[in-house]
Amino acid sequence: QVQVVESGGGLVQAGGSLRLSCTVSGLSIDVYGMGWFRQAPGREREWVSCITRSDGLTYYRSSVKGRFTISRDNAKSTSYLQMNSLKPEDSAMYYCAVKTGAGSCAIAPNFGYWGQGTQVTVSS
Q: How do residues 88-104 score in pLDDT, each as one tens digit?
């Protein structure tokens, strides 16, 4: 059984930093891309970032580029999302997901395993 567990969320002031972790059990993540999505109350889920399985290429939505960094540690079966210079508009539930389908890593249906999410709240 595959389990995806996020951690590291919390309350932080604007300009602060958080590091989210995503640990996967039940499969070896080195053959999968990993992604992060977020959803704020009343808004649709949106893609944040992803990292490819083989060459570790990273991609970001424009609003977080330069502030967020995605990484992965295959030996620990863990993906990370380092978030710096946080803004109130970054507040959301953040979800980690394992990319099991082909195609873009910015499309949620291409991800087959999801975590329960970790809440990030940025105060102004």
A: 999 999 999 999 999 99
